[in-house]
Amino acid sequence: ACFRFAHPALVQLKLLEHASGAPILTELGSTTSGLTTIKAFGREKGFTNRFAKLVECHTRCGYVFMVGMHWLLFRMDLLSTGIATGAGVFALAARGSLDEGLVALALMSVILLANTLMTVTIMSVELSAKMVSLGKLFELVDHTPQEPTHGTCPLKFADASIELRSFSAAYRPGTPNVLHNICLTIPAGKHVGVVGRTGSGKSTLAAALFRLVEASEGSILMGGQDIADIGLADLRS
């Protein structure tokens, strides 16, 4: 009963511990990469406080998990002690009709069996809790959107012209557009240079030609064919 009650609770606690630990790594990486900017704007205290809150949340989850493990260990100790005590009382009650060697062997076997049961139970809970990480990995593999490798149309360019028709793009769905309503035609065989200040979208425009950034509005045509209908392997080759 203790195992059936504690096992799902401990697994969920371990899941919370892992979930609360991921933001710490993300915050640490972003803070380290932007340390110069943080110091330039004098925001050290704010980032320190935010990092401390993340660590505190992770520590709380880990502490509750350890309390749950010790709770189960204490119950298993009580169960082991009860089994050994019952065997000893039974041996004392039947001391006149049983061989002393068999009684000693039975007591040792009961004690070892109880300890083995406790060890197996604890190891089972630990294993199930640690398998949470593997489960999260499989969940990411199964549910992370993948880029399509093949399109609905074959790659057949009539010429090498490129045309952007009211093209807009965003880095992720639901975020503001970084390219806005671009209309552009580049004839075949022409050389074109894109000029602009930092952050104006030059690299994003180049990435959109290879569909590293998907269109939120409009389309890009190469040789009169929409690149959204072309497989990425064919387009980027």
Topology, element by element:
Blueprint: H1 2-33, H2 35-40, H3 44-93, H4 100-143, E1 162-169, E2 179-186, H5 202-209, E3 215-222, E4 225-226, H6 232-236
Antiparallel strand pairs: 1-2, 1-3, 3-4
Helix pairs in contact: 1-3, 1-4, 3-4
Explain this structure.
With about 240 residues, this protein is α+β, with helices and mostly antiparallel strands. It is built from 6 helices and 4 strands, in the order ααααββαββα. It has helices at about 1-35, 35-40, 45-95, 100-145, 200-210, 230-235, and strands spanning about 160-170, 180-185, 215-220, 225. A 4-stranded antiparallel sheet has the order 2-1-3-4, with helices on one face. α1 runs antiparallel to α3 (about 45-95), α1 crosses α4 and α3 (about 45-95) runs antiparallel to α4. The longest helix has about 50 residues, at about 45-95. It is elongated and about 110 Å long. The mean pLDDT is about 80.
